[in-house]
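pls ignore typos typing on phone
manganese (II) ion + seq
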Amino acid sequence: MTKKTETKLEDLLYKNETVADVKPKAMKAADEFCEGYKKFLDNSKTEREATAYSEALLKKAGYTPFVPGKKLKAGDKIYKINRDKCVLAATIGKKELEKGFRLNIAHVDAPRLDLRPVPTYEEKGLAYFRTHYYGGVRKYQWPTIPLSLHGVLYRADGSKVELNIGEKEGDPVFCITDLLPHLSAKQNEQKLNEGITGENLNILIGSTPIPDKDVENRVKLNVLKLLNDAYGITERDFTCAEIEAVPAFKARDIGFDRAMIGSYGHDDRVDAYPALMAEIESKKPAYTSVCVLTDKEETGSDGVTGLNSMYTFHFLQQLCAAQGADAITAFQASKCLSADVTAAYDPSFADAFEPNNATYAGRGIAIYKYTGSRGKSSTNDASAELVSYLTRLMDKEGIVWQIGEMGKIDLGGGGTVAKYVANQDIETIDIGVPVLSMHSPYEVVAKSDVYMAYLTFKAFCADEA
Ligand code: MN
Ligand code: MN
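k done
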């Protein structure tokens, strides 16, 4: 191979620069875009709430419920909700479906504390809910913060009750207690992951006994009485329920420059919201664009609302059937951005990262060619061809991107939904917004990265190549 012109020295190097340096004008646009994102965060503390909020946005944008068998034309916008917990939205493209879909997929479940089926108990005059943690949480981070309760219960007659306590101004909140430093000498000697155990994650819910002194568990009974008065529920109804305890904080700007956002649940609403916005703005695309906001990623994607089930692929197959298109051919021609957060390099814990292959908050949307652990086990390893396609698209659109890995080799690792999509014969690559304190009750992201994620989904939806 020969070259006609000499490459400039500075162009010999892979650059990993901040959005502020490369695209200073994007900073203001990012700030504006994130106002909508913060609203999404505050109204979407659970997968059910994220789904309901997204459905409202889709309806407002003119999406109509998907009807299997109904023929659609270019520009038509349809959506389907999977069991109140997942969103499927699509804009029909100009090309026939056999040319493939452009899929943007993110998840709307997040690490949290679920109530157990029989959660309520009393000890020494205090009433509690017992929890079972959902997803990868560092248990010591959950005591001594305000918690809110969200979810649904079914009464014995089958009627549904929706719960949301602790978000509104004036609502009570709940919390898990911890030992005082004066008495924590023994706890301090324990390993970080043993100081607070799953059995310690009990939520304080009351301290007043009912007046009747002749009954046992008077404080628990008082709580159940209050719940019965307010919602018409009994202890039995907690057995038919999904109640999630999540941090009661609101999304807030972080720093004097307001360039970051602190919030519960960035993982993975920080990709879900930009993907949804890009889908909503997708207008008569060349390829049919599809946005999927899924559940159950944090517990391994199993179950009927997880990406390891067929629900997404059934939707795509039904779309194909209605158009008289062959689904296998469509899948093979498709491309998917599997969007999930990446670890942001943390200078306070530099030991965990390999700086050349880390991803950084404020340096744009991150690509993970592969995830997994122990020798890339259990990962979709995107092809060089697909990375090349995506980086050329981003370069063409002036999108600031970076590429990296989770952290130092064999420190840990993680997975995403990418492999479940790729296993269906669909080319898939992981991208996402880097997060500081990932999976903690208060995660941090850079607004500029959120905006670059949005631009990426938009460019991918609109791409004609
Ligand atoms: Mn995630
Ligand atoms: Mn996660």
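The CA atoms of residues 267 and 341 lie 6 Å apart. The longest helix spans residues 26-43. more later
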